[in-house]
Amino acid sequence: MNSQDITPRVVRIVTAGLAFYLAGLFLSIVLLQAGIVLLFAGSIPLLATRWKSSPPGTFEILIILYFISGLFAVFLARNPANAFPQLMRHLALWSLIPLLIVKEHWSFSSPKRLAQIMVVGGGICALAGFYYHFFVGLERTQAFNGRYFTLAALLTVTLPVTLGYILTHSAALTRGGAFFSAAVQLTALWWTYTRSAFLALLVGLSATAVLFVFRKSRSAARWQFLSGLLFLLPVLILIGLIWQSPDPRINPFRKKHPQSSFREPGTVDLSSGRSQIYRDALHILSDDWQQKRWVNLLFGHGLRSRSELVSSQYKSWESDYVQILLNQGIIGLLILSGIYLVFLKHLVEFVPRLIRGDPSAGLIGGYFAAGLAFWIMSFFTLQISNIYGCAYFVVLTLAIFQLAPKTASG
Prior knowledge:
Structural class: mainly alpha
Strand content: under 5%
Radius of gyration: 22 Å
Distance between the termini: 16 Å
Largest sheet: none
Order of helices and strands: HHHHHHHHHHHHHHHHH
Shape: globular
Helix content: over 70%
């Protein structure tokens, strides 16, 4: 597709959409939804022009199929009118299509620019977390969007990218600002007390630190060690905080202090309700199989399946894969798995580049750690199947595909 085929008007729509989209990540769901609508509008002429010259890529096909699966699931819900607004989550993922098309010809969304936005936006949201923790009195802090788990999911992406951004700059002022942002992000993340985010960061940052330390280049051994240490430092801090925590949810191995307000470890549901949620899912799937409800097994129970099928305080299935399986059936689960497989394929391609000592190793390491952490969290909470998590995925993928331009089409 030639740049001449894309009209300036479409570029302005996509650029405005991305601006609203990025602002919405950190500040307001209204801005995020405005960005999603603008990007969807821009995608229609882009797709019409693109498909005249070349067939759609694997990733584009998966995103479109994911949307169609969600649209079909709306009509499988008991109350389609209530389920229809949930399609905004699917449109959030659709936003990747126009962004990936336009990024081939313009550099307004380069990985470095996106990293700068994450450094600033992540720092601002973390400072908002300080405000809610100290001045509002929230034990599990939050920022402008959602609740504590939304802030945790955001910082799990922005913190590793901030660390990678530090390695790309030699200017003392820029590095100092990024260090400050990283410090407040880590602190605010701890105050969310979100174990899935802790686990995801521990794995993502540790893996990246190992890759930096064991690079093949011998000419920059000191830089390798310091880079690895930069990614390892938050891991050590988190482990220390977890070990010292009196909360049995965070540290079930520590004995309860006599004057602690926390309950004994044996009386706490360490799964935070997930064990019951997964039992509910298994019961519904078993019943579908026994009653031969093949349509529900293949296409799901609708986009609000948890709320419609189970009376519970938990309104979601607390896992991308269980959520999509119950909402959109086996077909939807296969599509979601395909999306994650393409995403992981690009992450795996970063490994030899980090080992060889790629000139963009700082940014690559940051996005690698963030991408790995995002995927790990998808097993324990809603990521792509949540509008905020999906938006984080879009920005991550946009940057990651640009760092691997030859396979960006999936």
